[in-house]
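Cross-check.
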Amino acid sequence: QVQLVESGGGLVQAGGSLRLSCAASGSIFRINVMRWYRQAPGKQRELVAGVTSGGSTNYADSVKGRFTISRDNAENTVYLQMNNLKTEDTAVYYCYAIVSAATQLQYAYWGQGTQVTVSS
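Predicted model, tokenized:
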């Protein structure tokens, strides 16, 4: 079993910055992909950014140039640096990971979510 624990959410004014962290622990052989998703009230969960074990990244168009995803493979941690935040970034942000076990089987895990609220 693997646990993902997010931190770093909070309340910030528009134009401000926040840094989210997600630490993975448990039965981990290798973390293949780590992603951040978000879900605003009344909306579907959407992909924000992802990073592979090799460091390749992808972003939603709405956050390109403002958000940066990074990971520390030694610490099994992924970060999301969010700059120039907008009110429309308000959502619960979820960490997601695809983890290989020693058996080479892959499993997907979600964190519990962290609230980000951007005020005008």
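The mean pLDDT is 96. The two ends are 40 Å apart (CA to CA). Passed to J.P. for a second look.
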